[in-house]
Amino acid sequence: MGMTITEKILAAHSGRDTVVPGEIVNAKLDLIVCHDVTTPPAVSMLKKLGINKVFDPSKILVTPDHFVPNKDIKSAELSKQLREWRIEQKIERYYEIGNHGICHAIAPEQGHVLPGQTIVCGDSHTTTMGALGTFATGVGSTDLAAALATGELWFKTPESMLFELNGDLPFGVYSKDIILYIISKIGVDGARYKAMEYRGSGLKSLTMEARFTITNMAIEAGGKSGIMPADSIAEDYVKARTKEPYTIYGSDEDANYSDRHTINIDQLEPMVALPSLPSNGRFIGEIERTKMDQVYIGSCTNGRIEDLRIAAQIFKGHKVADGTRAIVVPATTEVWKMAMREGLLEIFADAGCVVSTATCGACLGGFMGVLGAEETCLSTTNRNFVGRMGSPKSKVYLASPATAAATAITGTITDPREFLKASAQAAAA
Amino acid sequence: MASRKHEAYSKHSIETSNKTRFVMAELPTNLKGFAHVYERAHINTDEIIPARYLNVHEEAELAKYAMEDIDPEFVKRVRPGDFVIAGENFGCGSSREHAIWALRGAGIKVVIAANYSRIFFRNAINNGFLAIECAGAVGIVKGGDELELDLLAGKLRNLSNGQEATFVPISDFARELIEDGGLLPHIQKKAAKA
Ligand code: SF4
Fold first, then answer.
1. pLDDT at B25
2. Nearest CA to ligand 1 atom 2
């Protein structure tokens, strides 16, 4: 029986020739990513147990991201604990405020993620990094503590689900629309415990940045991981960032999948997930033009440079509607700098958007755009749960950066193609 | 609410630092507690403990806000040893272990859900916290009922109405972790043996 990429990576990291779904393995970890919310409790646990040294500082990456620049005294204490710990442990891969970024965006961007690796982070969106052909999954603080102490962790080998993406994305439709569509079909527990593996001609038409958006939201379907085979697009991305060697794994022809889905991405339209589950996705033509009090463009899902470029293309020459606020949050400092050099920040500012430094910010209701009761927000983030971005009485809608920008301009949920056509015509004229 | 007569857990518990950890020498057959029922599917960790409280991680502090966004009365009602009964995919969303700590800090001894998101379940057993998969639980329990859990037999009894539900007893692997008091004591034990 053949194996999937996921099974091959887990087998190779646990000293076995084969593994089968359900089998519990103890896998060696190649990278452990740490942020300011879930790492301090792990550090406290290790201290309490008298474990004073991490297994290997060179395999750890630390970046404060959730509540930075610190939103209050308590979060400042968390960042401080993180900072002191990384100095004490001599962890060199550290991104201090000013170089920082959202962990799932900065780790691949700065060349720390390689095909064939095993990666954990105390964060459910660790799945993002699977787009580079990596087994990456989210864990809690106890797992993180065990990982930091020993460099390995137990995993139940997941079953894999195959998603075959066919065709090219139509005009005005983006990878966010693909993943919102998939989650709307399989539900928020449709991939519970499973690895969501993608392949097909449709994948070839997606840049790395677009792919990260898809693997980012594996957890919104309950997935343990999202994974894509590392092809030439992935290799180009990695080679531009690091000289480290890596191993590419591919699924065998006769690998076993618990489910197979074919998605004709050329048939898709912009999607919006209605409150309060990511699985409430609808084609934009099927929903009302609901009024939005706020639009939020950012997060580990859609805060990369391509996301900001498309948003800026739509905002150019327009203003944010009266009665709506628009907040743009680049995912990393590097994205912020690129946006500055390319003139995107000026376009956002002229349109009347607020542009923040990189942070998780309001994605999890932390700060930088928290919602009040009864307020509505169309957001490029990944969760629209009750209370996720603020008041439990607020309402969050999920969509692509293009849909978000178009919505900010009109103040109601708007099909981005209306604006994209006009901007394409203006460019051609 | 029914009168409360909680079992003494002393024989199953030890004190570690300032927290009470339930470390079981053997799986108990008569855990008793009162039910808090959330039958809806997909109760997520943002609902169990909202992110605005993640700037701390002390159990006692987190406990004050447990379930705040879906059940503001929960923290007033909950007593040590109580059970949470829930529907499918309990604990989905964010990986925050704070969800376990908030529930445990509030006094919850066991969660019994139809099934779990993988990270919540993993966090539970890593903490030596009981998370039981029992599809029939929501059907036989209403809020305030007194329950008895037999972990060895895989049986949940509703002492208030006499009904019963069965569940697949926890796996050997999970049991080993729970019996050791969680993942960290477990790996320490393994390291000491090696
Ligand atoms: S941006 Fe949002 S989803 Fe991503 S890591 Fe931060 S809080 Fe989590």
1. 53
2. A363
